Amino acid sequence: MATIGNPLATLPEQPAAGLPPGARRPRRLRGSALVRSMVREHHVRREDLVLPLFTCPGLGVRHEIEAMPGVARMSPDVLVEECREAADAGIPAVILFGVPDHKDGAGSPGYDPEGIIPRAAAAIGEAGLDLLVIADVCLCEYTDHGHCGVLTEEGVDNDPTVELLARASVVYADAGVDVVAPSDMMDGRVAAIRGALDRAGHAEVPIMAYAAKYASGFYGPFREAAGSAPRFGDRRGYQMDPPNVREALREISLDLEEGADVVMVKPALAYLDVLRAARDRFDAPLAAYNVSGEYAMIKAAAERGWIDEIRVRDEVLVAIKRAGADLILTYFAKDVARSLG
Length: 341
Ligand code: PBG
Hints:
Blueprint: H1 33-38, E1 49-55, E2 62-64, E3 72-74, H2 76-88, E4 93-98, H3 116-127, E5 132-137, E6 151-152, E7 155-156, H4 158-174, E8 179-182, H5 189-199, E9 208-213, H6 220-226, H7 246-258, E10 262-266, H8 272-281, E11 286-290, H9 292-303, H10 309-322, E12 327-330, H11 333-339
Helix pairs in contact: 2-3, 4-5
The chain binds ligand PBG.
């Protein structure tokens, strides 16, 4: 019977249309927020998040990074407050990148026991926060030429660089860093770091290896933040070639054989297939780095009103989980942890 105000009432009489009885109706499980939440297959949890932080010498320093809104280089005193907020938001770990005030050809500020990472780690330790401190281990922030190791005419000299990375790892562990994360892509560095840590009495310190790290344009804003853009050339002689996926599996397999505890794929978004392949092949915990360029793109488009930052951010992070990552390193970590309520 037609009712006044029913828009359907104005339509001409329709034949009894519709799906046959017993038809499949997947929309039944999308009808309300409650039912959607019950059948949701993947989640981003606070425990999955690692917040990257940049630290520099000084007192009271907070230098905002233009291409990464909300991200700043901080002196250890300011960094401790940022870490306190991260811990309060329920984030289990931060990863530290050091930006020293001087650099040299051998990256020696990177393995100086009085350097920026040991000082920052000590400051966080003194604050007694419930937070794991991971240190990125690489020389590019500490070399005056901006490459990830010591140079010969041909490029980065692998074996002497590995020695220095092992030395840096021990220095960081001595200063109280909980996990070391080599991001240099030198051959054999995981075994060398494992051996050096064990000999120095740090057998309990895990290694989170940037196992499949690609030579990527998505690192652009990070290099501004860390002041680590190479002065000449690029990193293609040691970071991976973007089209390769089988090579990534070989790299991950080598790092696991050498003693890596957690393996990482980096960047995340353009490499979700690599994450999936790694998840299917290996049992080890798998991390993905949602890198600076991925963050900057979302921030920039959202600032112009072209996309909804929160929706896109959450979509991207759950895509990384869906692809198989256990852990996500992301500059969004604090915002996401807070939004999880
Ligand atoms: C190297 C390092 C880089 C990033 C993490 N560790 C830069 C590079 O290899 O050029 C990039 C992270 C990001 O873009 O967010 N120490």
